[in-house]
Amino acid sequence: MTSALTPLDQTRLEGLRTAFDEREANHVAMNAVTQVGIDEVAHNYNRSRLLQHRFSVSIDNGTVTSQAHSGRCWLFSSLNVARFVARKALNIDGESTANPMGDFELSQNYAMYYDKLERVNYFLRDVAALVRAHEPIDSQLMRFLMGDVMGDGGQWIMAMNIYKKYGAVPKQFYPETASSQNTSQMNDQLRRLLHQATAHMVANPDGIDEIIDRTLEAGHRILTIHLGTPPTSFDWEWTDKDGVFHRDGRITPQEFWKRYVNAGLEDYVCLVDDPRPEHPKGRKIGIEHLGNVAGGDPTEYLNVPVEVMKDCARRLMSEQGLPVWFGADCHPMMDRKAGQWATDLFEYGWVYGVDFDMDKEQRVRFGDSAQNHAMAFVGVDVADDGRTTNRWRVENSWGADIANKGYFTMSDDWFSEYVYEVAVPKSMLSDEYRQAFDQEAIMLPAWDPMGALA
Question: Among this protein's residues, is 312 annotated catalytic?
């Protein structure tokens, strides 16, 4: 059989070399990039120095947290929003003696423990239904589910499913472990366990229920060995920032969440900017097979123009003084050390002599961009008209040794191009948008870019 692919022959290769040599700028770029790397050469000095870390609205949320070597950004960012609410309810600051082990935080390890346990159950039940329906094991869906199982990523709705069911605990009652800070080995073992369970289901469909029970028990055992036994209750006492001592007695994590944290967070909805025209603005979008808690809220969003997302985020911070959870594609045009994002922060096209001209829709459609990181907005610079946004202050979860003590600055144009999701109170939306949540969602396949996890 003759291949239809045209080989790269010697004549064409010589032509490429000649074209490279004829452009002097290529040699300058090569000399620089081979010595210091592309980002150092392409860095836009004028853009960087003008992207100031000043904001007309700024929210103090204490010392930036660190997710270490894990993909728990969605849990860290949602708990960063929650800890802001808790600090106000408890009248404490970030370094309160409420937490003698350091700045006040809510346990990310606790949230991850129950997320992983629930995901074991969710995956087993989901795959069992597919096996019983005779889904081919080599179908695109099964291959995707097998490859995507037991990662660390998630969504705001998935985080709320955990907090609604299991509550939250201050970090000192369930601190980090070696495996919570570096999840790869634990995830590998859980992934292997679930792959094996699927193989057993396919081989023995009549024994599926027993396979689920046995695997769930093993998953629980693995998680507890890696992360420790989570508390079911704890003695809660603290000293507020005015020096007043408080004792609340023994409470459960669920009681702690309802008493000090919730403040309406459970009623938030997610807005997304899906730029593909076949998914109309004002319509609800759902992702098949995406979730963590069986029986929990489905992962659904309302597709809206990005300007609606900006307006809601601005209003939530400026009018209610609350941080805003969001998801973005964090890698393009990012200076991690300086803590900056702007669409022209790096002039790669100038260095390479290439015009990178894809818009947001094309980047999504052709696999160049998708949500991969969640953070919290904790400030915004608003123009004198009270509505136009210039730049955004971002609380990350990569520690305080980078950026402005861990806080990043995002240009407004970068928001338009690379932010995909925000979580806001449903009450903030127009009547039209609120009613849209009552409609049936447009269901997208599990591998759709809008299902990408932070």
Answer: no
How far is C-alpha 98 from the geometric centre of its chain's CA atoms? 28
Give the residue-averaged pLDDT of 158-170. Answer: 98
DSSP secondary structure of 181-213: HB-HHHHHHHHHHHHHHHHHHHH-GGGHHHHHH
CA-CA distance, 444 to 55, in Å (whole number)?
Answer: 38
Sign for the CA dihedral angle at 324, 168, 407, 37 comes to negative
The enclosing H or E element of 147 equals helix 140-148
pLDDT in tens, 350-369: 999 999 999 999 999 999 99
Residues of the chain by 3-state class (helix, strand, coil), percent to 5: 45, 15, 35
- 8 A C-beta contact, residue 112 and residue 227: yes
Domain segments of the chain: what residues?
A: 57-290+298-451
Average pLDDT over residues 123-151: 97
Quote the CA–CA distance of 327 and 265 in Å, as a whole number.
17
Summarize pLDDT for 185-244 with one digit per residue, the tens: 999 999 999 999 999 999 999 999 999 999 999 999 999 999 999 999 999 999 999 999
Asked whether the CA dihedral 419, 420, 426, 429 is positive or negative, the reply is: positive
- 27 catalytic per annotation: no
Instruction: Report d(CA 204, CA 198) in Å as an integer.
Output: 10
How far, in Å, are 76, 99, 235, 245, 442 from residue 248 at the CA level? 26, 15, 7, 10, 46
Is residue 310 packed enough to be buried (19+ CB in 10 Å), middle (13-18) or exposed (0-12)?
buried
3-state secondary structure of 126: helix
Beta bridge partners of 286: 300, 443
Q: Which amino acid is present at 119?
A: R
Cα–Cα distance for residue pair 272/293, rounded to 1 Å: 22
Token digits of residue 241: 């920032």
| Those residues with Cβ within 8 angstroms of residue 227's Cβ, 6 or more apart along the chain or in another chain | 109, 112, 113, 177, 179, 180, 186
Question: What pLDDT was estimated at residue 98?
Answer: 53
Q: What local confidence, expressed as pLDDT, does residue 262 receive?
A: 84
**226 is annotated as an active-site residue:** no
- Could you say which of 134, 226, 396, 404 is catalytic? 396
57-290+298-451: which CATH topology? Cathepsin B; Chain A (3.90.70)
Q: Average pLDDT in the 285-292 region?
A: 97
Q: What is the pLDDT at residue 94?
A: 58
Residue 100 in this model has a pLDDT that exceeds 90: no
pLDDT at 4: 87
Q: How many Cβ atoms from other residues are within 10 Å of residue 185's Cβ?
A: 11
- Give the separation between CA 450 and CA 447, rounded to whole angstroms: 8
From 46, 220, 373, 404, active-site residue: 373
Question: Residues 73, 270, 312, 330: which is the catalytic one?
Answer: 73
